[in-house]
Amino acid sequence: MTLSSIRTIAAALVLLLIGCGGRVAAAGDEVGQYQLQFGVKIPLRDGVQLNATLYRPLHAAERVPVILLLTPYPDNTEHPSGSYFARRGYIFAYVDVRGRGDSEGKFNPMAQEAQDGFDVVEWFARQPWSNGQVAMWGGSYPGYDQWATASQRPPHLRTIVPVASIRPAVDFPTSNGIMETDALQWLTWVSGRSLYSGLFSDDKFWRETTARSFEEKAPFDKLDEYVGNTSTVFQTWLAHPDFDAFWRPIYLAPERIAGIDLPVLEISGYRDDDEAASISFYRDHLQSKDRSALERFYLILGPWDHPGTREPKARVWNEEFGTASLLDMRKLQLEWYDWILRSGAKPAFLTQHVAYYVQGPGAECWKYADSLDAAAVRSQVLYLNSSGGAKSVFESGRLVSRPADAGADSFVSDPNDLTAAQSFRESEGKIILAAGDPGLDLHGNGVVYHTAQFQEDAELDGSIALRLWLQVDAPDSDLGYALYLITPDGKAHWLSSAQLRARYRHGLERAEAITRGKPEEYVFPAAQWFAQRIPKGSYLRLILQAVNLPEMQKNWNSMKPVSEQSGVDAQVATIRVLHDPKHPSRLVLPFGNPEAVCARLGGRSSVASSL
User: Fold this and answer.
1) Residue 9: inside a domain
2) Residue 459 domain-assigned?
3) pLDDT at 439
4) Which residues on adjacent β-strands are paired with residue 89?
5) Within a domain: residue 6?
6) How far is CA 496 from CA 18, 428, 483, 490, in A?
7) How far apart (Å, rounded) are the C-alpha atoms in residues 432 and 343?
8) Whole-angstrom Cα distance, residue 187 to residue 189?
9) Which helix (H) or strand (E) holds 446?
10) Largest CA distance in the chain
11) DSSP class of residue 266?
């Protein structure tokens, strides 16, 4: 749940008024009236009581299944979902997690949810109006709650539908060892019993405050003072920069995820900064020894951002996508619950275990595979090469099929360069490395490499892999890359990006200083999984840079704890990108089959309305 996710949520945040009763017809759906029940108290094993609001079918003739939303957001933004499922014969339970809303106890993000989730599921299964079947629902933090609860194996939990899930140490509050300012923005949102939605949504305040901290060269651990909301949780997170005993329990061990014996429908998006977490849960679950459990796991990946995984929009990050991307998520999830809980028909959309959306000219459609890795039919290694320094799009290096005979390019990581602050103040979305038209002017901070033009249509389906041989003359630095598609009309389309904190190049468990000047291979973490049609005449652009942005935890290139570093610790680093026979820096591309069947299923024009 990184900064672009937070900002998009803030921009879309609209508090809805709760109503009750009424009948709203949706084509093809049987709908009825429902009633609300406020202030339902759920006792936990330690005596703490959680607060719930129930949406119940008004004239249910029998006990019915329960759909549970366990959430830290005590507002009514999920009222449309509650009413939707209740009108269709389910009890929808909106439960505030411990310490939030009217629930008792103290909120300790992510640390409490597994045990509490178990107790809540089993409590609902025992109620006289429940038929003993409990399902879970929700996205982002509530997506994590589902995985955490399922990891405890509650006997009456029948299925989970995690959407855009977060996962500690994967994507939130840190990603690849780097924290972003959105961590504090989120903590401020949930600082009180109720939500500080106005402050959370004040994008100008957050941009100006973080830019000011950046310009004043303040340590990152002072950011909460700049905001005016000192946070014990924020400081605790910063006190554990390594992946240590603090993070491991709430990370949820892979073997716990692999052992979940439930039907799972997981949903994420290429522009959702939490996609890495969703895929990590998917890959952990694939390690299950129970083949029947694997047969009941379905994954959907679309071109969406964070809120778009629940309410898809055609326009995301200034890109337009086809109507097939506009899935009716509530209807799809209703079909899933009917299949699992009521022996209904399997959702027609789920023809294979992985559904992924292919974006781009000539595509804008859905493809299917038995597994995520099966989407790619071949891989191609492209080696970095240059003869003129790779300094910009006009003097770029090349991505070629054979290792270079010799050579190196270099750029400078200068933490004292504060020019990104103004761009940050003026931007409407996340700055992905080079601002503006990517790669036109890197101001000495970065190098650029291009492929040759594609001689025929192609398709990339998967995550790219980047392995660079570098020489760095500072003890630490934050490095990043971005990959763009440049179409024949000259437009740049973002495909993927990732960052790496050099001290964690050998793993997040232990920081290790760079040996100055020693050539070493840096393996960048897997970035976004995506599917993109590449039109003939297009080419790819790879940009490498030092990460020096106001929205990121500032690394001043020293080996002090990064959150404690300030301008006095600044070290300017020269980063040499080696590409010779002994140091073959390379990019690996996953190619799919552009001729494979691509279905234009879904879309709001072909499915019933959710309202």
Assistant:
1) no
2) yes
3) 57
4) none
5) no
6) 39, 19, 5, 18
7) 46
8) 5
9) none
10) 77
11) E
DSSP state of 44: -
364: CATH? 3.40.50.1820
In a domain, 515, yes or no: yes
Q: For the ranges 393-407, 440-454, 505-519, which has the lowest average pLDDT?
A: 440-454
Q: Are strands 49-57 and 91-96 parallel, antiparallel or unpaired?
A: antiparallel
What is the average per-residue pLDDT within 579-585? 95
Could you tell me the CATH number of the domain that includes residue 466?
A: 2.60.120.260
Q: Do 365 and 488 reside in the same domain of the chain?
A: no
478-510 tens-digit pLDDT: 999 999 999 999 999 999 999 999 999 999 999
Is 177:144 a contact under the CB 8 Å cutoff?
no
Which amino acid, 435?
A
Q: Which two three-digit tokens encode residue 47?
A: 């005596």
Q: Which of 240, 276, 230 is nearest to 524 (CA)?
A: 276
Confidence bin at 28 (pLDDT 50/70/90): very low
Give residue 20's pLDDT band: very low, low, confident or very high (50, 70, 90).
very low
Same domain, 160 and 267: yes
More confidently predicted of 25 and 262? 262
5 — pLDDT class (breaks 50, 70, 90): low
Quote the pLDDT of residue 427.
74
What is the pLDDT of the chain when averaged over all its residues?
90
322 and 404 share a domain?
no
Ordered DSSP codes for 303-323: EEETGGGTS--SEETTEE--G
Mean pLDDT of 380-394: 91
Q: How confident is the model over 250-263, as a mean pLDDT?
A: 96
Angle between helices 182-189 and 3-12 (to 10 degrees): 40
Q: Report how many domains make up the chain.
A: 3
Residues 196 and 135 in one domain: no
The one-letter amino acid code at 11 reads A
Residue reference for tokens 């924020």: 234
> By residue range, what is the domain housing residue 473?
378-591
Q: Do 152 and 262 fall within a single domain?
A: yes
| Cis ω before 173 (30° cut-off from 0) | yes
Kind of pairing between the strands at 315-316 and 174-175: unpaired
Rounded Cα–Cα distance for residues 427 and 413 (Å): 22
Position with higher pLDDT, 433 vs 471: 471
| 547 lies in the same domain as 412 | yes
> Is a pLDDT exceeding 70 seen at residue 161?
yes
For residues 492 and 356, state if they share a domain: no
Q: Three-state DSSP class for 147?
A: helix
User: Does 327 share its domain with 216?
Assistant: no
How many CB atoms lie under 10 A from the CB of residue 418?
16
